Amino acid sequence: MSYFVYILQCSDNTLYTGIAKDLYKRVDEHNNSDKGAKYTKVRRPVSLLYFEKSENRSTASKREYEIKKLSRLKKMELIDA
């Protein structure tokens, strides 16, 4: 089963990185439900800026960790690439 690594832009212009099986359902949860991350709940609405597909949860988690370590500038370069 595929997983997605994604980057959201929050209403306060911060970036949030996460993983999901169903990307669009997860973005909807971030915006509209209690299942959204604690970080994004107080920064709604969020918009999807970037995503990439991973083969499994393990590779998605590793990639999420790599992206989270990047500076904001590097994340924006990734998004713009």
Give an overview in words.
- The chain is built from 4 helices and 3 strands.
- It is of the alpha+beta class.
- The protein has a single domain, classed as 3-Layer(aba) Sandwich (GIY-YIG endonuclease), CATH 3.40.1440.10.
- Strands 2-1-3 form a 3-stranded antiparallel sheet, with helices on both faces.
- The model has no long low-confidence stretch (mean pLDDT 96).
Keywords:
81 residues; GIY-YIG endonuclease; 3-stranded antiparallel β-sheet; 4 helices; 44% helix
How is the topology of this model organized?
Blueprint: E1 3-9, E2 15-20, H1 23-32, H2 38-41, E3 47-54, H3 57-69, H4 72-80
Antiparallel strand pairs: 1-2, 1-3
Poorly predicted runs of 5 or more residues: none
The sequence of SSEs as H and E is: EEHHEHH
Please, how many domains?
A: 1
What separation lies between the terminal Cα atoms?
Answer: 26 Å
| Helix share, percent | 40-55%
* Percentage beta strand: 25-35%
Total beta strand runs: 3
Largest sheet: 3 strands, antiparallel
Number of helices: 4
Write the CATH homologous superfamily: GIY-YIG endonuclease
